[in-house]
Amino acid sequence: MSQPSTSPSVRPEQAADLAAARAAYEELRAGGLKLDLTRGKPSSEQLDLSDALLTILQPGDVKAADGTDCRNYGGLQGLPELRAVFAELLQVPAEQLFACGNASLTVMHDMVAHAMLSVLPGAERRWADEAEIRFLCPVPGYDRHFTICDRFGITMVPVPLTGEGPDMDVVEELVAADPRIKGMWCVPKYSNPTGESYSDETVRRLAAMPAAAPDFRLFWDNAYAVHHLTAEPTEVLPILAACADAGHPDRAFVFGSTSKITAAGAGVAFFGSSPANMAWYAGLAAAQTIGPDKLNQLRHARFFQDAAAVETHMERHRALLEPRFAAVYEVLERELGGIATWTRPSGGYFVSLQVPEGCASEVVRLAKEAGIALTPAGAAFPGGRDPRDSQIRLAPSFPTVDEVRTAMQGVAVCVRLAAAERAAG
Ligand code: PMP
To answer: Quick check: keyword Transferase in the entry (predicted)?
Structure first.
């Protein structure tokens, strides 16, 4: 579902609704709710789906398929049998994939730190020795990507999303002209927060476009590779193959993890790239660790014998997530048709709500006062500033279906009041 390019505007007749909206809001506030739609965390029922991981290994059963004792040091690239399962799902050849620690965000952060301190394949110098480093940031996007840029003093250049990925006319022009642009954040499937996936044309153009920086990298964060919300999974072209075909084999860094597949924050992260980038990374990672947690990787390999087992497991997640998303749409359609617009993603964890321009911060403030925590307005934009003050990210996975419905009814009351207040001036 595409992200609307314009925000709904306030209509004059909404001013007349002000008194009614205020009364509804006072009633909401008196209700003393305590609900949270802020972060895309799995619910406890979703976490229960992977509880077998807690007991799947027993004393005496700690060897990998090749005989490696997983209790001991070593194996920087991670367990081969687990890499084989996720290679297919992340569209990276198993021999080009690392199974790492517990969080892909750590690997993304480290990759920027390494590029700052060590010369990337193809680079003329370390990023720390450049006068300025810029990253393209499709917006609305994932706030933690922007936090990594902030941490390293990287200038963020917002680019619009179209519903099929970033606006490639804009991206191609910027990347071809500006050697300071060294990177670009991409969430290619069921993006956070718009839910959109990159079309084949978007992927091909990203792989093929000329870049002024010889060390330009796509930070391909495939966090939602298998997180479908419909019976027809979306396919995105494999980026490593597209880059190799286009003559830019070292362009993409691919990231993924089992965070929203098994235990969030206690799963396994993955990193895939070209042989040159792998060798570069392996040399640097060897200074950080003697090897990853192979016992956790073995647990995951036992739990998921093959890629099909992961897909079956994700169906169980979908069964728990779908009713929560349905509750969001049900309330939005009933309460906010004609006032707001929203996405209907076919995967991922979020609904992106567009409220009338200039109202998002006020909606979030009103909701907070009424006991409903929403992601701060603007969080999906670099610097935390949405130029239209219109976008709100809704994360319905964690609360129960009834709580989602109640929270969304409250959000609708807040949107009506903010819109009416604005219309009334
Ligand atoms: N990337 C995206 C786009 C995400 O939405 C999330 C989780 N919210 C992450 C990465 C975090 O992944 P991990 O737990 O592997 O660090």
So the answer is: yes
